[in-house]
Give the backbone structure.
Amino acid sequence: MRSVIATAAFVASLLAGAAAAQAQQAAPIPGSVLAATCSGCHGPAGRSVAEIPPINGRTEQQLLSAMLDFKNDRRPATVMNRHAKGFSDDELAAIAREISANWR
Ligand code: HEC
């Protein structure tokens, strides 16, 4: 009986460890998914034609530095300062990579 309890406790501890490891290694959200949030205002593939500036055809560096400037309040904005704060710097880098590579 004692060994059954010990085995159950051991299995439970393994499961808890596995769950914790899984939570820590949650895959980052792909840049393509993050960048989809930009289309709502900047248009499909960033080719907006109205008030909001188009963001297609830019280099990764241009996009990343604009986003970091918005995030850190170095660039005045109405919307983008708030939007950029919702992403980590790594996520902004992934967005800049995605848009510069695929939004032509
Ligand atoms: C709610 C609408 C909205 C969303 C969503 C949005 N933007 Fe913007 N974006 C704007 C507006 C409006 C401006 C003009 C600056 C301002 O007033 O905030 C702008 C400006 C920009 C600029 C500067 C363009 C230039 O030529 O000066 C970049 C770069 C940019 N956005 C990138 C993004 C990226 C990348 C995303 C997605 C992560 C995104 N935006 C999501 C509304 C939006």
In short: The chain has a mean pLDDT of 87. The longest helix spans residues 2-24. Residues 37-38, 40-42, 52-53, 55, 63, 66-67, 77-80, 83, 95, 99 surround heme C (CB under 6 Å).
